[in-house]
Amino acid sequence: MKRSRVEFTKSMKKTHTILIPSMLDFHFPLLKYAFLSGGYKCDVIGVNEYSRSQMINAGWEYSNNDVCFPCNLIIGQFICALKSGKYDTAKTALLLPQTGGGCRACNYIMLLRKALLKAGLQNVPVVSLNVSGVEKHSGFSITPKMVLTACAAIYYSDLLLYLYNELSPYELKKGETLDKVRLWNGRLSRLFEHGKAADPISMCVIFRKISESFATINCDKSRSVKKVAVTGELYIKFCALGNGETEKYLRDLGCQIYMSGFVPYIMYLADSCTNDDNIYGRKTLAGVGAKVLIAYMKTLWCKMNSALVQNGFEPMEDYRSLKSYGENFGCLGETMGDGWLIGAEMCSALKNGCKGVVMLLPFGCLVSHTCARGIIKRIKKLYPDSIITAVDHDSGTADVNIKNRIKMTLDFMDNNIMKHNKN
User: Fold this and answer.
1) Which of 14, 65, 278, 389 has CA 20 to 30 A from 320's CA?
2) Does pTM surpass 0.70?
3) How many Å apart are CA 56 and CA 71, to the nearest integer?
């Protein structure tokens, strides 16, 4: 017998708090204001709110060990939060993003509902966040104001992430860069609370102010620092819960992290519509809309890069360049999961001075392994001196194994440098 889903109704908008899982550590503190701007009450589950093992075990208990690791963690987060006593389950809803593609991630929502039933929480509504019409709720809709706020939040977060990675290895006063990030997160949060900072004109002004603020940090650029790229599947790449705090470990070892932001991923998703139209020789409303969105996002990206350059920073790689890298080693029609973008990010990193790449992947994810592992050989031909290491993450993966593989990558980078010095 088919189980009916619990509808998120219009009346629930006033009574229910929407729980958002920890997925984008650097972005969600600001992204939540997109939902608040739409009149929804929401709360992001903190990365350190529950222990990693506690969430993994909860994911195992209420789903199964055959699902991919991100699914296990997301279900575990929700179950831990609902059973913690912090939330009234009669006035709580859950939010889960769905891209509508062929990746298993699009089926998490069914697994989550099954887990809630098993946990005796079947009356908790699960809201699908999607723009493809995969699932709809009468009480949840995405408004233009929410879109503008979300867009601004993503750009600000990408800028803060870039500056943090760029300056923290060289700062003279330890922790100063992170303090600046927290300061700006606080300022931007207050602006969003008052309905400001989301329009393009305000964004351009704030881009400049953020860049000027970080330019005052005293740094010692003469330090010898290894530049390591971090790429891979979206969730494992951006979420410390998923990657076992890999980025923190690299920073503790004195490395500079090179990481593409979330904006290129959004443009990649939108561009998938235009690529399909080009490949199949058709013209769709989604494809036309995607072109308009990409043009708008490219304009903002140029404004953000201008602010960086004016304050002495290197510009971030633009989407056009990433796309050209994707064309060099594969087909732009490869848009399942993270598709050609993983390889493009690797090429961008290696072209911009990185000698090593750490690919963070969920174990058993066929999409990521095809689009990531499957192109290593081709990228090695383009960049013969590069060290590329794929690190699989799973519920049973020991932290020591992850750290050993990262250390091995850094050792190989040292060996390559020594060989070049001898020659």
Assistant:
1) 389
2) yes
3) 10
Does residue 390 contact residue 365 with C-beta atoms inside 8 Å?
Answer: no
Distance between CA atoms of residues 327 and 194, nearest Å? 43
**Nearest alpha-carbon partner for 372 in 399, 344, 352, 349:** 344
CA distance 65 to 217: 46
Residues forming a β-bridge with 339: none
Mean pLDDT of 181-185: 97
Per DSSP, the three-state class of 271 is helix
User: Are 92 and 40 within 8 A, CB to CB?
Assistant: no
Helical H segments across 38-143, by residue range: 52-62, 69-83, 108-118
In the block, tokens 């891209």 appear at: 99
Complete DSSP assignment for 25-60: TTTHHHHHHHHHHTT-EEEEPPTTSS-HHHHHHHHH
Task: Output helix, strand, coil percentages for the chain, rounded to the nearest 5.
Answer: 55, 10, 35
> For residues 343, 269, 229 and 174, what is the CA-based torsion angle, rounded to 10 degrees?
180
Q: What is the distance between the alpha carbons of residues 224 and 247, in angstroms, rounded to a whole number?
A: 18
pLDDT, tens digit, for every residue of 267-312? 998 888 787 777 778 887 777 888 888 999 999 999 999 999 999 9
- Evaluated on CA atoms 278, 280, 282, 287, the torsion sign reads negative
Within 282-352, residue ranges assigned H as helices are 285-310, 319-329, 341-351
d(CA 94, CA 197): 27
Reported for 50-59, long-range contacts at CB under 8 A and 24+ positions apart, including other chains, are 50/77, 50/80, 50/81, 50/84, 52/241, 52/244, 54/80, 55/80, 55/241, 56/395, 58/83, 59/395
Residue 290 to residue 320: CA distance in whole angstroms: 15
pLDDT tens digits along 207-257: 999 999 999 999 998 888 999 999 998 889 999 988 989 999 999 998 999
